[in-house]
Amino acid sequence: MDLIRTVLAEDGVLLREGLAGVLGRFGFDVVAAVGDADALLDAVARLEPQLVITDVRMPPGFLDEGLRAALTLRERHPGLAVVALSQFVQHAYATDLLESADGRRVGYLLKDRVVDVGDFIAALRRIVDGGTVVDPDVVRQLLRRRKDPVARLSDRERQVLELVAEGHSNATIARRLFLSEAAVGKHVGNVLTKLDLPPATDGNRRVLAVLTWLRSRD
Fold this sequence. Notes:
Order of helices and strands: EHEHEHEHEHEHHHHH
Domain Response regulatory: 5-126
Number of strands: 6
Helix content: 40-55%
Low-confidence stretches: none
Keywords: DNA-binding, Phosphoprotein, Transcription, Transcription regulation
Strand content: 5-15%
Structural class: alpha/beta
Organism: Cryptosporangium japonicum
Number of helices: 10
Shape: globular
InterPro entries: CheY-like_superfamily, NreC/VraR/RcsB-like_REC, Sig_transdc_resp-reg_receiver, Tscrpt_reg_LuxR_C, WalR-like
Pfam families: GerE (PF00196), Response_reg (PF00072)
């Protein structure tokens, strides 16, 4: 298995070194581990990684420097996989990042998710492979806040949409919900129809379904 060239940006030294160590054990070649957004941009320009993992809040202001760097990288390198890590659920941050480029190869995860190494590594691989992964806690909070058009969905359709947003395939969703793949496909189709996503966008409709409820605000 080829190593995945990775640039890691995290201002906390202990977390940065810990993440680099974990990634190195699971097939990720951490070619640079930096502590601020400027260094992140420089490292990507020099080293041409396949994956960037960055904290949302970075020096000097500890506001959204990491996010803005991630958005810049998405604009400069549309094929680059980018994952933002955040301490808290930031709805606007998640929306901005997921709407960047083509909505693929992107993820928004809470730092608590790193504790479950298996899930974290699996999410990173799905993103590198072209998927879009939103942290389950972010999904749940946003679904609770949505009124329209998500209010049109049934409870089962919401469950399916939540798992789609986490980057799971129909087969995986079927196993988790104890449904047939055909049933999951029907639920996904209902979700796309109720969210008024046009057939012409079929190749990217699953991503658009996620973005639809992210854009909707109370």
